[in-house]
Amino acid sequence: MTRDFPKEFIRFIQVEKGLARHTLESYTRDLERLNAWASKNKKSIEDLDRSDLRKWIASLSRDGLAPTSVARAVSAARGFYKFLLLDGHIKHHPAEDLDTPQRFNYLPKFLTEDEINSLLSAPDVSTEEGIRDRTILEVMYATGLRVSELIGLKQTDVDLMTGLIVCHGKGNKERRVPLGKSAIHWLQQYAAVKAGYGKPSSPFVFLYRGKQFTRQLAWAMIKSRAEQVGIKNVSPHTLRHSFATHLLQHGADSRSVQALLGHSDISTTQIYTHITDGHLRAAYNRHHPRARKKD
Predict the structure, then answer these.
(1) Please, how many CA atoms are within 13 Å of residue 7, restricted to the half-sphere of its CB?
(2) 5-86 has which fold?
(3) Where are the domain boundaries for CATH 1.10.443.10 in the chain?
């Protein structure tokens, strides 16, 4: 019976690395693509060499995959072949130091500070739902949390006295993130609303009908609130991008932003350098007396 090495690898990283469910699903799809490419070329996935993998990468780009998706697929392949190598199923690592397309040849969408203020004012805070939604928006912009981190927040993770939250990021890595006064204020307002319900039925901070808020509800709420004030194509990650961009625009150093975002690699944070470079260029063009003179 032929062994299903990709399935064994996914099971291995699920147990050993504790990756989030959506990351495991993405890696599974990536390895399914690689397996399908290998079968199409009449090869076994474990027998592919460096040249094969380069052709596979080129095929992904031709199929219209975004550079970030291609880079993630290559990362999945690297991990997979490292797993095969360590388990003695192959003798050489074909994906080691494999070149990938430039990951950050795009600028992520972020909101201006005026747009953030409009978005924060969208919920009707005379209602309980409005207070909850305002609190979610405030916390996401104040902390740069991923949506999975936000919905996973428990009451025990939030310390309003010290103004800190503990969040559990990718790979279940724990980090502490400060809360600003505005976010603390709205968390207090939301806590008062929840106190009116009596004994809480869930340990999670954000609830919908007494149960943990979901990723889908967060996406739908943020999109709806943004459209309410005339802002299109806003997602939870837009708030994360805005958090990082505004910090850098106001003088924060990239290492601090890296720590706040929970990035394991500083190169992931460098995407925001491109954004702030554009911000600096625009400021230069506006204010330098000879920025637009040719004589």
Answers:
(1) 3
(2) DNA polymerase; domain 1 (1.10.150)
(3) 113-283
Give the right CATH number for 113-283 from 1.10.720.60, 1.10.443.10, 2.60.40.1120, 1.10.260.40.
Answer: 1.10.443.10
User: Whole-prediction pTM value?
Assistant: 0.62
Per residue, the 3-state secondary structure of 181-250, as one string, reads: HHHHHHHHHHHHHHHCCCCCCCCECCEECCEECCHHHHHHHHHHHHHHCCCCCCCHHHHHHHHHHHHHHC
Which token pair is 35? Answer: 């397996």
DSSP-assigned letter for residue 253 = -
Write out pLDDT tens, residues 106-129. 556 789 999 999 999 999 999 999
- What totals of helices (H) and strands (E) does the chain contain, helices first? 13, 5
Q: Are residues 93 and 81 in contact, defined by beta-carbon separation less than 8 angstroms?
A: yes
3-state secondary structure 97-157: CCCCCCCCCCCCCCCCHHHHHHHHCCCCCCCHHHHHHHHHHHHHHHHCCCHHHHHCCEHHH
Per-residue pLDDT, 265: 67
Range(s) of the chain covered by CATH 1.10.150.130: 5-86
221 phi and psi angles, rounded to 5 deg? -65, -45
Q: What is the DSSP letter of 89?
A: S
Tell me the C-alpha distance between 72 and 69, whole Å.
5
Kindly report, residue by residue over 145-189, the tens digit of the pLDDT. Answer: 999 999 999 999 999 999 999 988 776 778 899 999 999 999 999
Residues annotated as part of the active site: 146, 170, 237, 240, 263, 272
The reported pLDDT for the residue numbered 104 is: 45
b/e map 74-113, b = 16+ CB within 10 Å: bbbbbbbbebbbeeeebeeebbeebebbebbeeebebbee
**Amino acid letter, 52:** D
Find tokens 């797993």 and name the residue: 83
